[in-house]
């Protein structure tokens, strides 16, 4: 650390998706920033100005702030530097029991406690169980005997638009007193004038959880609609699109896979928080059940359609779109429901040759994450010779080859199953009997509807 300034404006703990994008934008705003990350490979990449994930605009922005030394990365705090402000951005993944892990939060708090000086401001930005800021982070900091201010400012950016939204989205700030709230707000006011001061730390914690849980429940209802439409042999795409056309009171989203690093996790954290006060969130729980069981339900349909068509081994089944979403595009595989679909396909079709493709995730990364599967570098290669093509995310490039064109290159008796209704707007004459989608499986001649 020799040659680096002794004092940084801001220290970011955790250089994952949330931490690295925030550190970059804060450095661009003129702050001196140090990012502390235990993974040495990420520290090396950051100091070289190379992001470790795909994010629009980040390569150029990161290169600029690292070259100017406005942002540097280190593996740990040490005595050669300190910070006026610390922001915790480490992950809070779910344990196998479905409970949000706090070990990384606790470790970050201990590291800050050992490094901070009297008067430091500590901001928690990670998504946490309600009460974590007050009952977990604050006591660890207080045990140091040093004076500090603490605030909760939840992260709410959309992957693929993070640099833009950090400058545009209202930033929620929760603290126990006005002076601390104003101090935390000043950090984000360098990025945006849209600051939302809420009355308490817990209000800020709940606001983030409620926002993502609301979206999860909305998508779950859309997937329920898809199940009903399958049962009656009509198109969910048509039902939803026609029902909300010019009728803003019924703005139902289209059905599809629901996952990712937030939506698969945050409803569970909210439910865990509620249970600590004796409250069961029935609608939230039901929404998670609907969204989590969708891969098994839909793969059951795919397996049935394979049998109905008499497709025999060795089957070639290719899953395209492995990142948790395609729009805005990302390479992030965390919480991807495509992985759950892949697992369900492997269980249902043990003798099949399964391949994977993603428009954004690098082929070597796919090979690392999915070593048992064949991986493709082009969509056309994944379609060619396949018995079944499963479209797993909503990347726009996945709708550049129409079902009719796919059919020309696939097994003559093969078919496409589309989780995102990329082609459901096309007339039946363009789709034939070899295109199925969520909420469209019963509408085009399937032998049996999908059943729960």
From TrEMBL:
InterPro entries: 6-PGluconate_DH-like_C_sf, NAD(P)-bd_dom_sf, UDP-Glc/GDP-Man, UDP-Glc/GDP-Man_DH_C, UDP-Glc/GDP-Man_DH_C_sf, UDP-Glc/GDP-Man_DH_dimer, UDP-Glc/GDP-Man_DH_N, UDP_ManNAc/GlcNAc_DH. Residues 318-425 form the UDP-glucose/GDP-mannose dehydrogenase C-terminal domain. It holds the Pfam family UDPG_MGDP_dh. One of its GO terms (molecular function) is oxidoreductase activity, acting on the CH-OH group of donors, NAD or NADP as acceptor. GO terms for biological process: polysaccharide biosynthetic process. It comes from the Bacteria. SMART domains: UDPG_MGDP_dh_C (SM00984). Keywords: NAD, Oxidoreductase. NCBIfam families: NDP-sugDHase. Belongs to the UDP-glucose/GDP-mannose dehydrogenase family. This is Nucleotide sugar dehydrogenase. It comes from Mycobacterium yunnanensis.
């Amino acid at each position: 650390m020799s040659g680096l300034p002794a004092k940084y404006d801001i220290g970011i703990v955790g250089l994952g998706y949330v931490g690295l994008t925030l550190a970059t934008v804060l450095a661009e705003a003129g702050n001196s920033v140090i990012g502390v990350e235990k993974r040495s490979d990420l520290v090396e990449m950051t100091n070289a100005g190379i992001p470790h994930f795909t994010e629009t605009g980040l390569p150029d922005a990161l290169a600029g702030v690292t070259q100017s030394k406005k942002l540097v990365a280190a593996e740990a705090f040490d005595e050669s530097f300190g910070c006026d402000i610390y922001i915790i951005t480490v992950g809070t993944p779910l344990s196998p029991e479905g409970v949000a892990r706090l070990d990384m939060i606790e470790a970050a708090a201990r590291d800050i406690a050992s490094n901070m000086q009297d008067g430091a401001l500590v901001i928690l930005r990670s998504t946490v169980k309600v009460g974590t800021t007050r009952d977990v982070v604050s006591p660890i900091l207080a045990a140091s005997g040093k004076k500090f201010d603490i605030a909760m400012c939840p992260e709410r950016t959309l992957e693929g638009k993070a640099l833009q939204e950090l400058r545009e989205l209202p930033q929620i700030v929760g603290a126990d007193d006005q002076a601390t709230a104003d101090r935390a707000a000043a950090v984000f006011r360098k990025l945006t004038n849209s600051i939302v001061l809420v009355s308490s730390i817990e209000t800020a914690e709940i606001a983030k959880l409620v926002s993502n849980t609301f979206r999860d429940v909305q998508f779950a209802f859309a997937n329920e609609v898809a199940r009903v439409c399958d049962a009656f042999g009509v198109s969910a795409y048509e039902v939803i699109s026609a029902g909300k056309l010019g009728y803003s009171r019924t703005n139902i989203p289209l059905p599809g896979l629901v996952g990712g690093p937030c939506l698969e996790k945050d409803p569970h954290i909210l439910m865990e928080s509620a249970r600590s006060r004796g409250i069961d969130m029935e609608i939230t729980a039901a929404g998670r059940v609907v969204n989590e069981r969708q891969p098994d339900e839909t793969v059951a349909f795919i397996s049935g359609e394979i049998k109905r068509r008499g497709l025999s081994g060795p089957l070639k089944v290719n899953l395209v779109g492995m990142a948790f979403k395609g729009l805005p595009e990302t390479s992030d595989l965390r919480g991807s429901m495509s992985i759950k679909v892949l697992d369900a396909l492997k269980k249902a079709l043990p003798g099949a040759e399964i391949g994977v493709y993603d428009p954004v995730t690098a082929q070597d990364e796919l090979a690392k994450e999915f070593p048992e599967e064949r991986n493709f570098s082009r969509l056309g290669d994944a379609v060619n010779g396949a018995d079944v093509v499963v479209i797993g995310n909503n990347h726009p490039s996945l709708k550049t080859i129409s079902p009719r064109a796919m059919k020309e290159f696939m097994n003559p008796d093969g078919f496409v199953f589309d989780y995102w209704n990329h082609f459901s707007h096309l007339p039946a004459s363009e789709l034939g009997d070899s295109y199925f989608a969520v909420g469209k499986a019963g509408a085009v001649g399937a032998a049996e509807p999908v059943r729960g």
